[in-house]
Automatic annotation (TrEMBL), chains A, B, C:
Domain (Amidohydrolase-related): residue spans on this chain: 166-358
GO molecular function: hydrolase activity
Name this polypeptide is given: Amidohydrolase
Organism field: Streptomyces filamentosus (Streptomyces roseosporus)
Amino acid sequence: MIDMPRLVDQSCHGVLRTELGLGTFEAHLGPSGAPPASGTTFFDTQTGFAVRRWCPPLLGLEPHCPPARYLARRRELGVAETGRRLLRSAGIATYLVDTGLPGDLTGPAELAAASRARAHEIVRLEPLAEQVADTSGTADAFLANLTEAVQAAAVRSVAFSSVSAPRCGLAAVAEPPGRGEARRAAGRWLARRTAGGPLDDPVLLRHLLWIAVGAGRPLQLHTGDRDPAVLAGFAAATAGLGADLVLLHGSPHHRTAARLAGAFPHVYADLGAALAATGARAADVLAEVLELAPFGKLLYSSGARALPELHVVAASAFRAALGRVLGAWVLDGAWSRTDAQRVAGMIAADNATRVYRLG
Amino acid sequence: MIDMPRLVDQSCHGVLRTELGLGTFEAHLGPSGAPPASGTTFFDTQTGFAVRRWCPPLLGLEPHCPPARYLARRRELGVAETGRRLLRSAGIATYLVDTGLPGDLTGPAELAAASRARAHEIVRLEPLAEQVADTSGTADAFLANLTEAVQAAAVRSVAFSSVSAPRCGLAAVAEPPGRGEARRAAGRWLARRTAGGPLDDPVLLRHLLWIAVGAGRPLQLHTGDRDPAVLAGFAAATAGLGADLVLLHGSPHHRTAARLAGAFPHVYADLGAALAATGARAADVLAEVLELAPFGKLLYSSGARALPELHVVAASAFRAALGRVLGAWVLDGAWSRTDAQRVAGMIAADNATRVYRLG
Amino acid sequence: MIDMPRLVDQSCHGVLRTELGLGTFEAHLGPSGAPPASGTTFFDTQTGFAVRRWCPPLLGLEPHCPPARYLARRRELGVAETGRRLLRSAGIATYLVDTGLPGDLTGPAELAAASRARAHEIVRLEPLAEQVADTSGTADAFLANLTEAVQAAAVRSVAFSSVSAPRCGLAAVAEPPGRGEARRAAGRWLARRTAGGPLDDPVLLRHLLWIAVGAGRPLQLHTGDRDPAVLAGFAAATAGLGADLVLLHGSPHHRTAARLAGAFPHVYADLGAALAATGARAADVLAEVLELAPFGKLLYSSGARALPELHVVAASAFRAALGRVLGAWVLDGAWSRTDAQRVAGMIAADNATRVYRLG
């Protein structure tokens, strides 16, 4: 009933290049890091069931076939051919690839080639700052090099991303640290850091976010399991400065994210990753996001990493959910079909094309 | 299936007296103050779509006609005739009008006449206190005049309202400030204030809320974008004192508001404004409110301001949502039809009639 | 469509042994302690309507008959016969009975006999510590006796429960207090305490939770009206120590509880009590819990206390909700029927059998 355009995936990662066994595959279905509880498996989750719903048919198997059978077929085809078959069926026109994750993942160009799509880079701020620290001798040099590195990254990429926004005290102090405060923090951090050590100083993290805001590119903020309401002060402080803020991964706080997108002109809300994680519930979660957010402020993403199956699941769940929710509103007379079609295009691709200047 | 009684709108505002262009009209569809983001419009929101669903037919146009066409028809009829047509079709028996907003809005008597309904006044506390400050020379005079003004307002109005409850530190200190503390706060505030300046001192705001509690009228608390859980301590401290608390505008925190209404005998939850803002999702939001709140503790309102269209949308969305949700439960055997009819009457009008003594 | 196995109720209480009048019965339908608001009744809640839906037919009356008629029939049969009829129709195989509530409630053996089911005890930590305090003369004796009492309770029971987790500062300090800190807190508390006085010292409460974690049994944490996100730090600190944490009574925070169950291998989420309280909305609430929690991490409970009707309502609402939600996903092709049947068994009984070692 609603024609679904090809998607712009505004936040994803590359896929693994190596063959995977059942256990390694399963590990990528759960939250990163933690193993499944004894007696349980990550296949028994909405994500696991969604993979078994959408992916086996793309490799010539029946939906919901057992995991071991699916993995056997995957190995039979090989990781490269599996990746191509899955990615090319996902209906993605453009990937915005966050390259800041560790691990042997394909980069934007390789993902684009495998998918027959376009790809652009998103630069993650924390690893960028850590690389700068590895080659900067003093606090002053570090701060100067950091600004330069962020400005250089703004030229080659379409956006920045950060995972530390909920952890750097923005709820208490939204403003940028002063020059002296940043310098002292840099001195302390460099002194206790060994090469490769993570950026964990709240003052420096805040300083880094503000440099990125100054660079004018959209800034994607991962809110993890925190309520994005903690970012309301930062949103107020950055209003009118020219950089858009994009709230990522809000579930179960997607309604708060949608409300912030309604309250601040420069704040946008992501909705794809929440849908990918909730599987059979994707239409319900999508409908909740559509309550308070203006329709021009919502952006599709997959948040997929490592497995091409996660790219497929996110896109399939999103398309099915959007068609179901908007279709029901049209049938009910709440929306016109013309409006529904227009809003589908906005969320699927047009909003991202405008915000990231992809046109 | 469920007969819907005429409504008591327990919290609304007057409408504008001036003709509106497309841009001015659109501004009233968004959150107050912020403009729409570049490349977007507030017509592309649930509120905007709901206006285009419910209002054009009342002015002789087809549903979902383009905004420009609707605005042209509106100007053709004139603002007064448009207001009468819209308001008289909204099915409101009684308006409780919060007169504390700035701008050239119709008062209770004018709204009642345009709508062929009754109207009562709700006095907003903050502007009342600011008027008192404009004419009080000393801290002592201010505090004495303030108590007198609140008591006088309690005689002519049916309730008080306040927008500062989430901002005056109630989560930390629920109790009223002591006499000396209030006096020092009044002295400090008056000394730094110029005429017309806003009441922004947390101690005085807390003092003001407690004077209102003492006056015995229901006290409506706008919680804005905050979780009303921050008011749990204030609810506990005011239990049994005789004044009811009514939590307004809870979305997306409507479930927390409903839970508080269940936990405290003197706490009530509003549900109309959340429905008006969520349009096609109104039935789902209403159903969530009906989970934890006792049915005798829920009150319809529109929260409408400036545009008579918002009065229409709130009432239409509420009636459609209530009919759909309760009707489905009756069909399912979960509720009896008799109970559903009775609960519809309670939420639409009877609870408000009891709480505000409108009988 | 989905066969529903007999349930393991992982958290409930006994029932009253005395005949009840209309008012006493009604009091048990509301939140404990608070009376209904003037002009309202706790029968006008989802719980009240659910009791009138499910229970009258079990006593030979029509569904939704008036409360007075139901109470008359209840008295006619007598409290013991009423209890047997209701409990035996609830489809419970095993009760885990939290014996820490005051009042004249049946114990595990009596509940098992009335229901023709099995029952095991859950020991609530706070009353246990208060009993130890009643018979310990010094801080040192109290701390030594407390450890011994918890270890003894771990032998005779299947789990511990606690109601103080959200109130003992775990969000700020997740770690166990040091030996000296616990000793000073015990000294202060014993000095100001009279016999029977409640354990309300945050340091001692934290100490108590950590002793229970050390005993290796599952620890059920009531989160009351708090967001279980405040327990994330405690969950991180107790990971890998061998004791599982079970989050109870999450509504309206059930989604946060589900997310924590997905993030930590040793954290589980309860879902029965939220369903019992939300009546006609139980299927919707259940569906939300199923978004983010792995299916092996969800446990049915009733949370029922005092009235056998609450045991019936929880079990009936749960079975109806589970059948409806999973059935719809199977019809939609989102889940296979085999998977749906398997997940139903896991949540209804198998997960609890594994976690509490009931096999």
